[in-house]
Give the backbone structure.
Amino acid sequence: MIPTRIKKLCTGCDLCEKVCPVINSSILSDKTVSAFNVRTNDLSALAKSSSGGAFYELSRYVINKGGVVFGVKFNGTHVEHSYAETLEEIELFMGSKYVQSEIGDTFQKAKSFLKGGRWVLFSGTPCQIAGLKHFLDRDYKNLLAVDLICHGVPSPGIWEKYISRLKKKLEATDVKDIRFRRKGKDGNPFTNFFFGLSYLKENQWHVYEESRADNLFFAYFTRHLFRPSCYECPYRNIYTPEADITIGDAIADSQYSEQNEMPSTIIVRSNLGREVVESIKTNFRVFEPLDIDAVNAYYQNEKTNTDYERDIRPWRLSNLIGMRLPLDYYKWVWKHDKFHIVIKRKIKKLCRRNIK
Ligand SMILES: Cc1cc2nc3c(=O)[nH]c(=O)nc-3n(C[C@H](O)[C@H](O)[C@H](O)COP(=O)(O)OP(=O)(O)OC[C@H]3O[C@@H](n4cnc5c(N)ncnc54)[C@H](O)[C@@H]3O)c2cc1C
C-alpha cells in the first residue's frame, strides 16, 4: 500500500518519490551476510532484554565510544522513538514494545548528531530504518543502523483501547513498567515470558502479570493487529541493504523455543556490522554461527501474514453489526479457531431478537 500525494498541498518537487523506501527498495549486490545466535554475559541486562541482549551489547559499544543510541520507549502508555546518551537511559529501550512507535523528530535529531561527528546507533523496524536511510540520503561512516526481524507492528489505536480497558478492569488510576516480555517470575533471566505492568489503585502500586497464552493483546498479536502495509512489506528479507545488523529471536534454530533460555539471533549485513560484532564478540556467553539460508527462510516464511482481508474480518464485522470492540469474545474465537461458526450463531441470535 503506497502512500498517495495530497494534491492540494503538493509543490511538485517529487522529493517524496525520491526518498520513498517502498518505491526505491533494492537488494544487496554483495550477499556476504552472516548470522549468529548470541547471549550476553551480563545477567542483569539479559533479564531486561527480550531475548539474548544483542541490542544492549551493541548499544554499550556505541555509548562507550561517546555516541548516541536511538530506540523505542514508553512515554506513559504511548510508544515512541527517543535517544539516550548513557547506559542507564538505554534501559528504557530494552524489551520489545509490540506497537508501532511514533518516530517524531528523531530522524532530524539523528542527522544533526551524525553531522556533528558523533557515533549514532539507530534501532527500529526494517521500514523505519529504510525510512531513515532514505531521509539521510547519503552514507555516514558513524551510523550503525540496527533493525529487527519483524513480522509486523500492531496498531497503536488498538493498543490504546486495550490498555484503557485493562486499566478499567484493574480499577487503576495509573500504570507504569509495562513489559510485553517480562522474564521468569523470580527474575530468572533465562525464561520467557509474560505480559506485565505495575498499576496504581487506591494510592498503592500493584503488579499485574499474565502468561503469553492468557494475554488478550498477544492472542491477537500474531494475526489480527497489523498495519495494512505490513502485509506487503518488502523488507522481510535479510538481503535488503539498509541495516548493518538485524536482531531477532533465536527461534530459527529449533533447539531454542520462546520458553527456554532464548538467545538473540544477529544477522550481520555490512562491513561496519562485521567490525562491530567482531569487537564485542567476547561480551557474549553464547556466540554460535548459523546457517544463513535457514535464517533467511525463517525470516521470510515464519509468521508471514498474507491475508489482510481475512485478518481484519473480526473488526469489520464488529463495525457492521455495531458491537463494541468485543476483545474477549474474539480471543475465545481465536483460541478455538471457529470464528465463522460463532459469528453465524451471534448473527442468528441478533436476528431472532430483532424479529421478536
Ligand atoms: C514489532 C516487533 C515485531 C517483532 N517480530 C519478531 C519476529 O517475528 N521474529 C523475531 O525473531 N523477532 C521479532 N522481533 C524482535 C524481538 O522481539 C527482539 O527485539 C529481538 O529478539 C532482540 O532482542 P534483544 O534481547 O537483543 O533486545 P531488546 O532489549 O529486547 O531490544 C529491543 C530493541 O527493539 C527496539 N524496539 C522495541 N520496540 C520497538 C518498536 N515498537 N518498534 C521499533 N523498534 C522497537 C528497541 O529500540 C531496541 O532496539 C520483533 C520486535 C518488534 C518490536
